[in-house]
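From the pipeline queue, job 12 of 40. The input is one protein chain; the requested action is below.

Action: predict structure.
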Amino acid sequence: MGLAGGGTGLAGVDVGGGGIRLRIEAGGTTAAGEDPVPAPRRDGRMDLHRLASRVARLVEETAPDLDRLAGMAIGTTGLPGLVPDPGVLWRALGDRFGLRALVVTGDMVTTHVGALGFRPGVVVAAGTGVIALGTDLAGVWNRSDGWGHLLGDHGGGAWIGARGLQAGLRARDGRLGGSAALLDRLTARFGSPSELVALAYAPGAAAHLLASFAPSVAEAARDGDAVARAIWDEAGRELGRSAAAAASGLEPVVSWGGRLFDAGDLLVEPFRDTVTALLPGVRLTPPRGVSADGALALARAAVAGSVRSRPPYVHVFPGTGVSGTGVSGTGFHGAG
């Protein structure tokens, strides 16, 4: 739905390995925008200057007639850990859009809020990568995985894609554990194995390239390929283990988010089975919304003054009566 011309709005931004997704709300209507290019990085960390430029361009393309934004929230991959100075985004975007408040947080937090709506529990966010967050948005902050495609992200899109490609190459070599169905899909998508190798080891977004093959692994699994089905089964179990690991100190409420779960029963069934086995009495709750919806809710809460900074997980910049580095003892309250 388009936005009415002029006026003031709110923006929620989700920044992940698969690109940037945006929700803008103004005058009772919403608009969505997307930039499918992977999040910008420099020396392994998020490049916040380039990110700010891309977010600004996407906002202006999505709502060209909007006068200003009262609040914005950005949930980005790499925070905490790979975002050394979230204030870069405030300095780049605050004056440009007339912001009263800006929230900068991890996409694990916006996915959590999108799924559970400010309620305590565990949310597994699975797209190109994987991270599980168990939190009450106050004193409990349990993170599991989220270590990137070389060191972790077990069960994520890059993990699935890599194992699918490996199974195709095993079939090419005649090794045990190979899948002719996945080899066929590998060559259809990437050309010869040599061409795939050149792409996979070129500088750039290797995780994004690997994750782009996950839909082909899903297609092969639905067509009856046992190797592909086993990859998805193990992915679901890995996500379930991450959820259980993040549940300490919380009521056993678990939800999920991220585009990987669009695979449906291929992923959800082994995920549910694993969570149920590891967390007796668990309440599995379908997500209320996605990460961009959670970011929009955080923007609304920040303007209302009901969200405070909790470094290193959440940073709120001027507009709520506290500085971007202040910490409230109560965290989130009265929101959503």
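Job complete. The first strand starts at residue 8 and ends at 16.
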